[in-house]
Amino acid sequence: MKNIVLIGFMATGKTSVGRLLARRLGRSFVDVDQKIEQENGMTIAEMFAKHGEDYFRAKERELISRVARNRNAVIATGGGVVLFPDNMSLLRANGIVISLSASVEAILERAGRRNTRPLLEQPDREQVVSDLLQKRSRLYREADYCVDNENCSPHQTVEKIVAFLRQEGI
């Protein structure tokens, strides 16, 4: 069976929804960011601070090339995975791509719960999120299915995704 790949901006619920969806469908769950941290022995924030974003993106691409070969998994990606067409080609080859979205305000509120977002360690966080979303939104909309989950719980988002999968015969 094809993987279910969750994409979307940071703090749109990819990890929370991914875990619930995997449990609901009886599939394995892979969180790309968490796996990168485990394999490299440091947090993404530490990677950004010590080595820069390019280093992190290289590690991300390397991991995507491996996890994209999985079968029957739910894969939660990092928010920037869409910036590299080769990542998306690999994930699409054996996966259904589902994009999660929310407003700038919701993202800032959710991201503010933990101080683990290196791209937001800047004075004008709202402008940073707005600019990054503007650059990436077209790429997120290229998914097979898009879910605005701003006003949905993770469980409600899972129900929407399951309904889509049923409708598509998956």
Describe this structure in words.
With 170 residues, the chain is α/β, with parallel strands linked by helices. The protein has a single domain, classed as P-loop containing nucleotide triphosphate hydrolases (Rossmann fold), CATH 3.40.50.300. The chain contains 8 helices and 5 strands; from the N terminus they run E-H-E-H-H-H-E-H-E-H-H-E-H. Strands 2-3-1-4-5 form a 5-stranded parallel β-sheet.
For this entry, give a set of tags:
170 residues, alpha/beta, Rossmann fold, five-stranded parallel β-sheet, 8 helices, 54% helix, globular
Give a brief rundown of this model.
The protein has helices spanning 14-25, 32-40, 44-51, 53-67, 85-93, 104-111, 125-140, 154-167; strands at residues 3-8, 28-31, 73-76, 95-101, 145-148. It is α/β, with parallel strands linked by helices and 170 residues long. It starts with a strand and ends with a helix.
CATH class: Alpha Beta
Report the average pLDDT across residues. Answer: 92
- Please summarize the sheet with the most strands: 5 strands, parallel
- Structural class by helix and strand composition: alpha/beta
SS element count, helices: 8
Approximate helicity band: 40-55%
Distance between the termini: 8 Å
- Give the CATH H-level superfamily: P-loop containing nucleotide triphosphate hydrolases
Report the uncertain regions: none
How are helices and strands ordered from N to C? EHEHHHEHEHHEH
CATH topology: Rossmann fold
Give the total of domains.
1
Dominant shape = globular
CATH architecture: 3-Layer(aba) Sandwich
What fraction strand? 5-15%
